[in-house]
Input
Amino acid sequence: MSTTAARRIATDVPRVQFLYHSPVLVTEEADIAGATLAARKVVETHERLVGFLRAGQTLAEIDAFVGVTLAEFDSISAFKHYRVRGHPPFPSEACLSVNACIVHGTHDMTDDPVGPGDLISIDIGVKHDGWIGDAAWTYVIEGTDETSMRLVESGRESLRLGVEAMKPGRPLVDWARTVQDHVEKKCGFGLVRGLGGHGYGRTLHGPPFISNVVPSYPGEWPDAFRSFRPGMLVAVEPMIAVSTTEIRSEGREWPIYSADGSRSVHHEADVLITENGPVNLTAGLFDLPDVVGN
Output
């Protein structure tokens, strides 16, 4: 589940805000094992979704499936009833975001079923034995147009390249520079501004905030040149739209949309920084198909 930096974005956007504080570093073997297992539960839930998703399903049906699956894994949703000041508790087991909805979609935002050609981002947050797992993937229902497929591929590849750049001792901005170069310079799509990744662990959100774009003026992202450190647990998540970098939302409601209504994708990974480099705890998501429901 994405966060926004504590510095901008219209007041009607649901958000978690924090200024920089030192992240909690996870270095004990038992803690690393706990975080790894929680991340594995997220991957296993996505694996179950691949076999379940079909055209004609409502978001409520998909959300109920996620809830049942988490229970089978002796886990609970890290999102359901999550609170942000000024907004109602998050109502769903997962974030279910279709087409122009970038993130934070809810099971009750529409009764319309997903159809052939739709893009659906499913963000799964797990709490298992006291540890959080938090990762999103975007799926294509049955097949779609060429631009939408390129958008999905852009999201996957930018995540892969960005994780590779998260080396200990290097600044956080290395992630953003790598992702932005791929998405905007190579692929011609737009990374939405203001939303980004975050630290996590035994809580869903914590420092540091990790922007997906290089800061364009001093103070825009104060933590950009702080370093990745061994023991950091971070959830990184490119959020991309076809033809805009801006977002909109409706008052106290959770869903965040592309400002121009263009399609969007969201891919997210849980990463542990080690002395030997980044370890993607949710790497199994890359083995999943883009297209489901056939």
Notes: The longest strand covers residues 131-141. The radius of gyration is 17 Å. Confidence is low (pLDDT under 50) at residues 6-20.
